[in-house]
Amino acid sequence: MDGTDDLLAIARTLATETSRLILDGRAAATVSATKSSDIDIVTQMDLAAEAHLRARLEQLRPDDAVLGEEGRAKPGATGVTWVLDPIDGTVNYLYGLPHFAVSVAAVTGPATPAAWTAQAGAVADGTGTLWSAARGRGAWRDGQPLRRRDAPPLSQTLLGTGFQYVAERRERQGQIVAAMLGQVRDIRRLGAAAVDLCLVAAGSLDAYYEHGLHSWDFAAAALIAQEAGVRVAGIDGGPGDERLLIAAMPHAWEPLRDALVSAGADRTWDRPSP
């Protein structure tokens, strides 16, 4: 395995290249398929972006494994897996909203969030901002160091979240939001988990939680948030995974988790839709 700096450089390069590809193709983007429901869409640019990422990895890191949203998992021989989300926030992308991103992460160990170790990651969002991080090295926004040092109390917290595409699950998630609204400053639903976690890293959101994410939604951005000083974990305090992810500053994490438990978030362990 090459060093973390090499993995970071590749993640940044691939995220930046692919962001240009999807921005150039945005005007012509159309829906090509649906997944878990008729509103869970895939555009032809999702497919083209992942194809580009895989082709570039075949050139740069041919022996690594690949786990992507739109294609089959590829096994590898190096212990490194690239976790790819070609467009996180596809609905925003299709509708002309800026909250979408390309996410590229390099992880080691078993290819599941609860067991892997994220080594490097990059998120290129729809505003042209490049977020990145390397384990133990820090996090950056457009090359400038990113470090959070404080957070407000729960009552003054601007809280981010998101919803799944299956209506019954969204209804349950809406009940949790209703229970949380009176306990925080306000709630934002921007529509792209990778962007949300980067905004928490920057302090533009105070905290964030979401049920039912896929591993590629947060593989890079969770590392960015952690390297910026944010605690990212599951409701039991262990690694955040596809059941539930909570991101907040360390001293604010437990009050948020306790409020979410009181709101019933511990009873909503939905796996991501197939």
Describe this structure in words.
This protein has about 270 residues and is of the alpha+beta class. It folds into 2 domains: about 5-145, Fructose-1,6-Bisphosphatase, subunit A, domain 1 (Fructose-1,6-Bisphosphatase, Chain A, domain 1), CATH 3.30.540; about 155-265, 3-Layer(aba) Sandwich (D-Maltodextrin-Binding Protein, domain 2). The protein contains 7 helices and 14 strands. The chain has helices at about 5-25, 45-60, 90-95, 165-180, 195-200, 215-225, 250-260, and strands spanning about 30-35, 40-45, 65-70, 80-90, 100-110, 115-125, 130-135, 140, 145, 160, 185-190, 205-210, 230-235, 245-250. The chain has a 7-stranded mixed sheet, sandwiched between helices. A hairpin with an 8-residue loop joins β5 (about 100-110) and β6. α1 (about 5-25) packs antiparallel against α2 (about 45-60) and α5 (about 195-200) runs parallel beside α6 (about 215-225). The radius of gyration is 17 Å and the shape is globular. The two termini are about 30 Å apart. The model is unreliable at about 270-274 (pLDDT under 50).
**CA-based gyration radius:** 17 Å
CATH architecture of the largest domain: 2-Layer Sandwich
**What's the total count of β strands?**
14
Count of helical regions: 7
| The CATH homology group name of the largest domain | Fructose-1,6-Bisphosphatase, subunit A, domain 1
Unreliable sequence segments: 270-274
Instruction: Determine the N-to-C terminus distance.
Output: 32 Å
Please trace the helix and strand order, writing H or E for each element: HEEHEEHEEEEEEHEHEHEEH
CATH T-level fold name of the largest domain: Fructose-1,6-Bisphosphatase, Chain A, domain 1
Question: What kind of sheet is the major sheet?
Answer: 7 strands, mixed
- Just give the CATH class of the largest domain: Alpha Beta
Domains, number: 2
Helix content bin:
25-40%
Please report which band the strand proportion falls in: under 5%, 5-15%, 15-25%, 25-35%, 35-45% or over 45%: 15-25%
Strand order of the largest sheet: 3-4-5-6-7-8-9
SS-derived structural category: alpha+beta
Tell the overall outline: globular
The averaged pLDDT comes out at 91
